[in-house]
Amino acid sequence: MLLRGSGTAGPWGWLTLLLVACAARASEITFELPDNAKQCFYEEIVQGTKCTLEFQVITGGHYDVDCRLEDPDGTVLYKEMKKQYDSFTFTASRNGTYKFCFSNEFSTFTHKTVYFDFQVGEDLPLFPSENRATALTQMESACVSIHEALKSVIDYQTHFRLREAQGRSRAEDLNTRVAYWSIGEAIILLVVSIGQVFLLKSFFSDKRTTTTRVGS
């Protein structure tokens, strides 16, 4: 699988390209998408190949992002605005380079962390002769069942990790807000306390009165 990335993500774009280069055959990537930025990826797909694009925003803002998928002719196959997560399956209508982009251009100060999984084609059979006319042996059937179960476990683990990362991000954001609110309340309480002290002091302070005696 040939996966290339480009966009206007500044220094984070280079980090994304590095991740892609380190895992050129991987279909799962997590990358940073800064505010007012757009990141695109390109994939060479053969006609008739079934593909699935799944993405989820892990951290940042309201956990939403714009997503757009185009075929080699520029025809829009999928377009969603401000989505937190979604999945889209399609079959390539022709050979060529397909392009899908994630945009955070509507955000002015919040960057996002986006995860996507782009699957191209079907998985190779566990055994080269798995599709033969004769039935599989008991050992082969057990291996195929275990293989399918392990793939399901990997998918569940990926989604659980994403939910854990998203929950942790929300908890840290809530903790920061609570800390700032507590500091603000402490400052207000201190100011009110000092004000009350000076106010009470003014009530009990000695006031000198001047009396005028009129002599006869």
TrEMBL record:
Potential role in vesicular protein trafficking, mainly in the early secretory pathway. Appears to play a role in the biosynthesis of secreted cargo including processing and post-translational modifications. It is found in: Cytoplasmic vesicle, COPI-coated vesicle membrane; Cytoplasmic vesicle, COPII-coated vesicle membrane; Endoplasmic reticulum membrane; Endoplasmic reticulum-Golgi intermediate compartment membrane. GO terms for biological process: protein transport. Belongs to the EMP24/GP25L family. This is Transmembrane emp24 domain-containing protein 7. Residues 1-26 form the signal peptide. It holds the Pfam family EMP24_GP25L. SMART domains: EMP24_GP25L. Residues 38-120 form the GOLD domain. The chain crosses the membrane at residues 178-200. GO terms for cellular component: COPI-coated vesicle membrane; endoplasmic reticulum membrane; endoplasmic reticulum-Golgi intermediate compartment membrane; ER to Golgi transport vesicle membrane; Golgi apparatus. Keywords: Cytoplasmic vesicle, Endoplasmic reticulum, Glycoprotein, Golgi apparatus, Membrane, Protein transport, Signal, Transmembrane, Transmembrane helix, Transport. It is a single-pass type I membrane protein. It comes from the Eukaryota. Its main location: membrane.
